[in-house]
Structures are given as structure tokens and as C-alpha cells.
Amino acid sequence: MALGGSNAAAPAGTGSTPGNAASAGPATTGAPQGLDLSSVAACTTAPADGVELVCSCAPDARTGSVWGTGPFTGDSDICTAARFTGAIGAEGGVVRLTGLPGQSAYEGGTANGVTTRSWGGYGRSFVVEPVGAPAGGPAEAQIQTAAGSDLEQCSRLPPGVDSYACSCQANAAEAKGSVWGADPFTTDSSICAAALLTGYISAGQPASVRVLRIQGLEKYTGTTQNGVTSNSWGRYGSSFVFDWNQ
Q1: Confidence (pTM)
Q2: Structure letter (DSSP) for residue 33
Q3: What distances in angstroms separate CA 157 from CA 22, 66, 160, 189, one per listed residue?
Q4: Fold exhibited by the domain 1-136
Q5: What is the rounded distance in angstroms from the CA atom of residue 237 to the CA atom of residue 216?
Q6: How confident is the model at residue 185 (pLDDT cuts 50, 70, 90)?
């Protein structure tokens, strides 16, 4: 089903990055408690590769065309993509965008009442995630780890970072983050889902993790362990593993 009308222009470009038609991001709705939607710039244009951006979607944000299921083509409508992933609901909300390289193919899907289209190669991509914050706090959520220190909540390995420490919440097992590989993982895989898969953390327990960037592989093989299923993929530019010595 075409979003935004049958005359929506189709994208064109080249590149490669993992994608998964079954992926649907963490389900959350609305603006984070204590964060005024009107104080955050509206989502308009996806960021460039390696750039992160926080923006907002109004409750009455228009429905536009989307290609892919996450990553999405760089010209996909951001707020419609956010509704597809569950990052926001009909009432809008604040999201975090991460620019990624293009991929050679994007597969469409249907989730949360939104249908996206399939497409071939495109030059740039993005993923969209919810932003949470404690009341009166900053947009970037912080959680208390079992060790008693405050660390940033894990999402994906930030661009240009070779060693990264972050925290997974006790309900990390419920997060719907996509994972490619079975250790090593592609660097755009969900860190907490990957940690659960490997047994690095346990379901139901908050924990801090440390990941290390390593070289990319020619092939990543998916698997199912500890209630988490990862996807297979071909060549990718960089990987991460967990630091079991921390």
C-alpha cells in the first residue's frame, strides 16, 4: 500500500547496510515525561551517515511515503517511519535519528497500522528510536546500573567510538532491537539484544556492558539463543564484540 498517495516519488541511489523486514523498534508513545514537545525542533530531514539528531513529531504530523523497515531510505518520511517502528504513537513524540550508509535493497513491511514500500539501492539510510527522559531531565535518558554508576542507556555503537560502556535496563529482553550476526555483530545491531543473545547479561536484571569495535566481516550468520533471534547478513564495514574482561 502506498503511503501519501500513489504519485509519491520513488527513491534512487546505491549502498549497503543490513535491513530486516520483520524489525519493529521499541514500542513507546508520546513525549518523554518532563519534555515539552514544542521545545524540540520538528523532524524534517534525515541526518547524514554517522550523525545523530533528536527531533519531534506533532500529533497531526502528515503521513508520508516510507521505504524499508529500518533502516529506511534517507528520503523516507521520518514521522511515518517512527510510527511504523512504534517509536511514537498517534499523539506524536520525540525521537532520535541516526544516519547510516545506504543499502542495496530495502524491503517493505506493515506494522502499527503503517505500510512501507520495498526499494532497491539508495545512497543513505537512517534508523529511528524513541527518546526517554526522567521528569525535568534531559532528553537523553540515564539509568542507574547495578554497579551504582550512571551510564547512558545502550542503543547502538556510536560512530567513531572504539570502546563504549552503556547500560541495559531490566526489561531489555522486551526491547525489539534488530541484531545481525552471532558475535561479532554488525555495529548497527542493538547492543542490549546482542548482550542477551550471548549471555553477557541476564534477562530481568539491569547491567552495564562494554563493547569493542573490531573490523567488519565478509558474512554474519544469525542464530537464536536466550530468547533472542539475530539475522544473517553479508559484508559490513565494522563489527563489535563484548568485553568479557571488564
Answers
A1: 0.46
A2: T
A3: 22, 25, 9, 8
A4: Ferric Hydroxamate Uptake Protein; Chain A, domain 1 (2.170.130)
A5: 5
A6: very high
